[in-house]
Amino acid sequence: MTDKEDNGLSEPSTMADIWPPTQRTRDAVINRLIETLTTPSVLAKRYGTMPADEASATARLVEEEAYAAAGGSPNADDEGIEILQVYSREISKRMLEAVKTRAGSGSTADDAPQSPVAASVAASTISEEISSVKTESV
Questions:
Q1: 12, pLDDT greater than 50
Q2: Predicted pLDDT of residue 81
Q3: Cβ contacts of residue 82 below 8 Å, gap of 6+?
Q4: Top-confidence residue, 124 or 14
Q5: Nearest residue to 95 via CA among 54, 130, 66
Q6: I want to staple 88 with a disulfide (CB 3.0 to 4.6 A). Which of 10, 32, 69, 122 is the partner?
Q7: CATH of the domain at 20
Q8: Which 8-state DSSP code applies to residue 112?
Q9: Is residue 56 part of a domain?
C-alpha cells in the first residue's frame, strides 16, 4: 500500500468513481450556486443578487442542464475527470447566461470575463465533494 492510499488520498481507479457525481455532490453544487446567486460576490456586484426562491430554481435548472449536457457530451466515454470538466464548464456557461438574462439588456457577450467566477464555484464544489467521498470510503 502506498502513502497516498494510507492517507485516503488515492486517485479513483475507474470512471465510475468520478462520473456520474453522487446526488450529494450534485446537491452541494446546487447549494453553492444558490449561495453565489444570493450573497454579495463579484458576480452579484456586476449583475445583482437574486431572491432565494429564484436563485434556488435557477441553480437547479443550471445544474440539471449542465449534468445532461456533460452526460451526453462526446467525452462521455472518456475519463471521468474530462466529463467533470465539461460539467463544470456547462455550469459556468449556464449560470452566466442566467444572471445576464436576469440583468436585462445591459449585459452583452463582451461580459464573459465573469465566467471564471461561476467555473470556480463549480470546480471547487466538485473537488471538495470528490475529496470528501474518497476520505469517507477509506
A1: no
A2: 84
A3: 75
A4: 124
A5: 66
A6: 122
A7: 1.10.246.200
A8: G
A9: yes
Q: Please name the residue that has the C-alpha cell 450573497.
A: 39
**b/e for 77-100, b at 16 or more Cβ within 10 A?**
eeebebbbbbbbbbbbbbbbebbb
DSSP H or E stretch at residue 69: helix 52-71
Question: Cell numbers 452541494 label which residue?
Answer: 28
**φ/ψ bin of 79: left (φ > 0), alpha (ψ from -120 to 50), beta (otherwise):** beta
pLDDT digits (tens, 9 = 90+) for 94-108: 999 999 999 884 444
Phi-psi map region of 23: left, alpha, beta (phi>0 left; psi -120 to 50 alpha):
alpha
**DSSP secondary structure code for residue 110 in this structure:** G
Task: Judge if pTM exceeds 0.90.
Answer: no
Q: Of 61, 2, 4, which Cα lies nearest the Cα of 29?
A: 61
Helix, strand, or coil (residue 1): coil
Residue 114: pLDDT above 80? no
Rg (CA), the chain: 16
Structural domain contains residue 94: yes
CA dist 59 and 51 (Å) reads 12
